[in-house]
Description:
The protein is mostly beta strands.
Amino acid sequence: MMSKPLTTFTVAKLIEALKEFPADMPVVVSGYESGYENMMPPKLAKLQQQKENKYWDGEFQEVEQSIENTLDAVVLNRAVRHE
């Protein structure tokens, strides 16, 4: 069983943080290089922590099946626009 990293932001913490804002306020996420994008609906993903990754690859990577040291997490993705 993997111990959860101290930096994991939980659903409960997110709900509490969002209570500080008006319910009809838009939510956006950071864009690919700069600016902001619309957010996709939250999804559940199985992740494996890979601290050795470069910052642009993210500390967590999605895995398709349960392997050692994975955790289930809610993922908030940005909408991807194709030019």
